[in-house]
Amino acid sequence: MSGGQTHGKWTAPVRGSVKINTDASISVIEHKSGIGGLARSPSSFVAAWSKPYPDVTDPLIAEPLALRDGVIFAKLRGFSRVAMETDCLEVVQLWHSRRFSRSIVAPLLLEIDELALSFLSFDIQHVFRNTNPPAHLCAKHAS
């Protein structure tokens, strides 16, 4: 669906879809996290955002928050075909087992699942960190 990744290089989404990369950044000193992301079509940059989350310092909470906010962004923008990418492999693995998960983030993943019902196609994929620096910069800005 999304064009995937090749040899650690970001690839554009397939025609007619939008790819949204998200990330989280933790500031233990300031006791908060920042999440961020950006959306791109096959031919152009669409938008970027960042948002602080005070008192969230666990990456396993912050990363799904970033995904959820990316899905909300996609829904608000009226996108119909969405490919989400994150560099947090654990969250992607939890996503694939969300219906049976007892993880602390299971409610967030189920919320994402409900939001995703509004899209014609939806997928969450893992990407290597070196293909996700723009999303990381957005997250870092908020943390």
Features:
143 residues; alpha/beta; five-stranded mixed sheet; 4 helices
Shape: globular
Q: Give the topology string: H per helix, E per strand.
A: EEEHEHHEH
| Alpha carbon gap, first and last residue | 32 Å
User: How many strands, which pairing sense, and closed or not: the largest β-sheet?
Assistant: 5 strands, mixed
Estimate the strand proportion: 25-35%
Mean pLDDT: 91
Query: Which class of secondary structure composition applies to the elements?
Result: alpha/beta
Count of individual beta strands: 5
Q: Any idea what the radius of gyration is? A: 14 Å
Instruction: Enumerate how many helices there are, as a single number.
Output: 4
The percent of residues in helical segments reads 25-40%
Uncertain stretches = 1-7
